[in-house]
Amino acid sequence: MQNVVATIPDLEREAEAFMARLAPEANRATLITLSGELGAGKTSFTKALAKAYGVSESVTSPTFVLEKVYALPAATGFAHLIHIDAYRLKNGEELKVLGWVEIMKEKGNLILLEWPENVKDALPAPSVAIRLEPHADGSRTITYA
Question: How far is 143 from 106, CA to CA, in rounded Å?
Fold first, then answer.
């Protein structure tokens, strides 16, 4: 499935629609991978999704801290939104410092992982793979697989 969003409000509506289709995995964390070049909108999509899930904290890129964890209301079906930015990682082995194996075991975790191509050797198949492609006019194409 593919959609084009022109503005941040459009991106927020897109994230809300995505959230409505998303359900926790039965036996592990729900892994959403976010791919796209720098500035494609990976963190913007994560912010919009967090807002749709009721996160009131400021959601920022975890580029330098690698991981940020946000509590989610019980009604969402998830306990935590875990935002990971693998931009600076060289391989999946480096995910171990985040407790990767343990967080993937928790069914209540919703993991949004930016730059999955950098750590693909440690990843199971994602629940959903999202690719964001920016356009010169400021719009973005979002592809779900």
Answer: 27
Closest CA to 63 of 34, 90, 86, 40: 86
Contact 42, 132 (CB under 8 A): yes
Q: How far apart are CA 18 and CA 72, in angstroms?
A: 16
Whether 107 shows a pLDDT value over 80: the answer reads: yes
Query: For residues 51 and 12, what is the distance between their CA atoms, to the nearest angstrom?
Result: 8
Helix/strand/coil for 98: helix
Q: How far is CA 89 from CA 32, 86, 122, 127, 141, in A?
A: 18, 5, 12, 22, 26
Strands of 2-144 (E only): list them. 2-5, 30-35, 67-71, 80-85, 109-114, 128-134, 140-144
- Where in the sequence is the domain holding 104, given as residue range(s)? 2-144
CATH number at residue 87: 3.40.50.300
Domain count, the chain: 1
Note whether 130 and 143 are within 8 A (CB): yes
Model confidence, pTM: 0.91
- pLDDT tens per residue, range 9-65: 898 889 889 988 899 999 999 999 999 998 888 898 999 999 988 898 888 777 767
